[in-house]
């Protein structure tokens, strides 16, 4: 019997593939994925992960519930784990995941924690967590977590206050639910956040829909991306 019932519709699972084991992920990450009860990658995962691991920028459109969180979190975690295993372990913020709401930030943090169950040296924080005072946030940022998950406005406030610097260390940027980020009016904040990032970093833009606005954002953050258009949102 499966350890956990998959919540993904079976038509979104890539059951033809040899499974996660064929994706060249770190053994500790694979253990955590197995522990989650994920037997097969979803289609967006099996197409995005190998490309992201090769260093490609990714633009993925896939409907809600298709496993986009794992598709971007797994390569981000893998990259940080490999850097740490190779001895590049000085504390530094290496990844920024932008999300439209603090609730989603909480869900993404949970997913990262599940994925790093056997790799506790990878530290992720949700900047928008409501139980954090400003002073507390400053203290947390001073410890330089590997991964910051935040809404554009939360990270921008901390960048502008000088409580976190991303210019030297950031290696990965993810914009999740890009369509919602834009429709919530975060456009200007995202542009300002980008001005605090290094010249070169790997980025992923995930969206359930593709609008002209998402296209404009794509021009700003992606370099020669792999474009993955999977299932549309059901009509
Ligand atoms: P999206 O961001 O595309 O809306 P999520 O990343 O939130 O989708 O994933 C939807 C659900 O599917 C979550 O409950 C997640 O834990 C589960 N899930 C993700 N990947 C897999 C997988 N490979 N196998 C089984 N379940 C998965
Ligand atoms: Mg999602």
Automatic annotation (TrEMBL):
Coiled-coil features, chain-numbered ranges: none
Domain DEAD-box RNA helicase Q: 18-46
Motif (Q motif): 18-46
Domain Helicase ATP-binding: 49-228
Family indicated by similarity: Belongs to the DEAD box helicase family. DDX56/DBP9 subfamily.
Name listed for the protein in its UniProt record: RNA helicase
């Amino acid at each position: 019997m499966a350890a956990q019932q998959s919540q993904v519709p079976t038509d979104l699972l890539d059951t033809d593939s040899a499974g996660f084991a064929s994706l060249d992920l770190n053994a500790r990450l694979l253990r955590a994925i197995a522990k989650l009860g994920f037997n097969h990658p979803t289609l967006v995962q099996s197409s995005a992960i190998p490309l992201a691991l090769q260093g490609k920028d990714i633009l993925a459109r896939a409907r809600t519930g298709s496993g986009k969180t794992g598709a971007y979190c797994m390569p981000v975690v893998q990259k940080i784990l490999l850097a740490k295993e190779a001895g590049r372990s000085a504390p530094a913020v290496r990844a920024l995941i932008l999300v439209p709401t603090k609730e989603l930030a909480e869900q993404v943090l949970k997913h990262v924690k599940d994925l790093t169950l056997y790799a506790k040296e990878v530290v992720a924080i949700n900047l928008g967590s409501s139980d954090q005072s400003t002073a507390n946030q400053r203290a947390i940022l001073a410890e330089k977590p590997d991964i910051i998950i935040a809404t554009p406005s939360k990270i921008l406030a901390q960048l502008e206050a000088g409580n976190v610097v991303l210019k030297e260390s950031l290696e990965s940027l993810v914009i999740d639910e890009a369509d919602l980020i834009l429709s919530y009016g975060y456009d200007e904040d995202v542009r300002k956040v980008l001005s605090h990032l290094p010249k070169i970093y790997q980025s992923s833009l995930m969206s359930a829909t593709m609008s002209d606005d998402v296209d404009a954002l794509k021009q700003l953050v992606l370099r020669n991306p792999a474009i993955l258009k999977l299932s549309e949102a059901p009509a």
